[in-house]
Specification:
By secondary structure, the chain is mainly alpha-helical. It has a single domain, classed as Orthogonal Bundle (Citrate Synthase, domain 1). The chain is built from 18 helices and 6 strands. The strands form 2 sheets. Strands 1-2-3 form a 3-stranded antiparallel sheet. A 3-stranded antiparallel sheet has the order 4-5-6. Helix 2 runs antiparallel to helix 9, helix 9 packs across helix 18 and helix 10 crosses helix 18. The radius of gyration is 23 Å and the shape is globular. It binds s-citryldethia Coenzyme A (SDX). InterPro entries: Citrate_synth-like_lrg_a-sub, Citrate_synth-like_sm_a-sub, Citrate_synthase, Citrate_synthase_AS, Citrate_synthase_bac-typ, Citrate_synthase_sf, Citrate_synthase_typ-I. It catalyses: oxaloacetate + acetyl-CoA + H2O = citrate + CoA + H(+). Pathway: Carbohydrate metabolism; tricarboxylic acid cycle; isocitrate from oxaloacetate: step 1/2.
Length: 427
């Protein structure tokens, strides 16, 4: 029978439907596998598992292709804006000018935080990692917006999505201000989404802050590059949290927590710290050998990817953006030369070639963010800020699916089989 996969288990044949998406690998529908065979599949890390159906983002890891609703990331990075890409991810089509203006205006109406939330920051040490603050403050949003947590109501889902997208720049900027001991700045909605964020971060009271257009454009492009990325670890976390019916603010806080890890969104901070540790190009061979040494936990941060077995198309854009920002700010950074040399050496080393390890989105981003003025501790915060639109779009897609169920994986149990309790005096 066409489009069937046959499995022989315990001497019996079982047929399972094979489903084809609009593009990409076919999937074997094993939803009835356990009921029919009494067996589970085993796939720790989900290397061969499609967890859901989605129409948002498509990645071809072998070809280095990334599409958002069909549009290549390179074209969106060159021609679009983060507000436009946000509209596209949420609604499925590029907006008309009126639709974009209305969407941007709606988002700008939600950039302010409830004044009580500002007191949450004062509970943290000044040297708290900004990602710890993001986890806490975003999770706390659900204590302030009881009017938009009925996930069954599309209007509630819409306003909480807009609130999250709009408030992340304010929360992120406040985390930075708190760390440096400067007063918080309120949003200025006469500025663009990204210009507003830059001013809240680097502006000071009673002083006109000038948004540098080239920096605003580079920052906006970096937000586009981080907006969504299929079923990565933090997006899968948001979907799993959302599958229980948790409110969207709690789900996004869960995604932020997962993104923090150095194997995921925390890699941009780790990559710049690695480049600082390497320092000059003459020290690169030592670190390349360490990265190849099975007994050394050191890895080249910003290199490798679960899906991309080719150059991450976002890294390509990121590398060219480094040059634009350096030119605009009339600065340079010797670490960029070290990064370029490290990439050149690694991509010509058989270990990296055979394992198909290429620079990913995190390899160059830290150099740009550092040039703009962000401390490394803010890098993953900026990733979370941008990824919020992807998380809420994926969450909405899941919650809107009438067939969605709570996510509840099974396991291969290897612990003790049943045994009787032994009283303390008998042990
Ligand atoms: C992001 O999923 C997404 O889409 C994530 C993301 C998004 O937008 O959401 O793209 C953002 O998280 C990008 C990745 C950022 N992380 C890093 O840069 C950290 C360094 N990279 C690695 O830790 C690793 O490459 C991962 C975690 C990204 C991917 O790991 P996998 O797919 O589980 O691959 P693996 O660990 O099994 O590695 C395969 C082999 C291993 O060697 P063997 O066991 O086969 O001998 O490659 C080696 C690894 O040791 N390897 C590396 C390496 N990455 C993998 N060796 C040295 N340096 C590296 N960076």
């Amino acid at each position: 029978m066409a489009n069937q996969a046959k499995l022989n288990a315990a001497g019996k044949d079982f047929d399972f439907p094979v489903l084809q998406g609009s593009v990409g690998p076919e999937v074997i529908d094993i939803r009835k596998l356990y009921a029919q065979t009494g067996k589970f599949t085993f796939d720790p890390g989900f290397t061969s598992t499609a967890s859901c159906e989605s129409a948002l983002t498509y990645i071809d890891g072998d070809e280095g292709v990334l599409l958002h609703r069909g549009y290549p990331i390179g074209q969106l990075a060159e021609h679009s804006s983060f507000m436009e890409v946000s509209y596209l991810l949420l609604n499925g089509e590029l907006p008309s000018k009126d639709e974009l203006d209305t969407f941007s205006y709606t988002i700008s109406r939600h950039t302010m935080l409830h004044e009580q939330l500002a007191t949450f920051y004062r509970g943290f040490r000044r040297d708290a990692h900004p990602m710890a603050i993001m986890c806490g403050v975003v999770g706390a949003l659900s204590a302030f917006y009881h009017d938009s947590t009925d996930i069954a109501d599309p209007e509630h889902r819409k306003i909480s999505s807009h609130r999250l997208i709009a408030k992340m720049p304010t929360i992120a900027a406040m985390a930075y201000k708190y760390a440096v001991g400067q007063p918080f700045l309120y949003p200025d909605n006469n500025l663009s989404y990204t210009g507003n964020f830059l001013r809240m971060t680097f502006g000071v009271p009673a002083e006109e802050y000038e948004v540098i257009p080239a920096v605003e454009k580079a920052m906006d492009r970096i937000f586009i590059l981080h907006a969504d990325h299929e079923q990565n670890a933090s997006t899968s976390t948001v979907r799993l949290a959302g599958s229980s019916g948790a409110n969207p603010f709690a789900c996004i806080a869960a995604g932020i927590a997962c993104l923090w890890g150095p194997a995921h969104g925390g890699a941009n901070e780790a990559a710049l710290n690695m480049l600082k540790e390497i320092g000059t190009p003459d020290r690169i061979p030592h670190y390349i050998e360490r990265a190849k040494d099975k007994n050394d936990p050191f890895r080249l941060m910003g290199f490798g990817h679960r899906v991309y077995k080719n150059y991450d198309p976002r890294a390509t854009v990121m590398q060219s953006t480094v040059r634009e920002v350096f030119e605009a700010l009339k600065v340079t950074d010797p670490l960029f030369e070290t990064a370029l040399r490290l990439e050149e050496i690694a991509l010509n080393d058989p270990y990296f070639v055979e394992k198909k390890l290429f620079p990913n989105v995190d390899f160059y981003s830290g150099i740009i963010l550092s040039a703009i003025g962000f401390p490394t501790t803010m890098f993953t915060v900026l990733f979370a800020l941008a990824r919020t639109v992807g998380w809420v779009a994926q969450w909405n897609e899941m919650i809107s699916d009438p067939g969605q169920k709570i996510g509840r994986p099974r396991q291969l149990y290897t612990g003790p089989t049943q045994r009787d309790y032994v009283p303390l005096d008998k042990r």
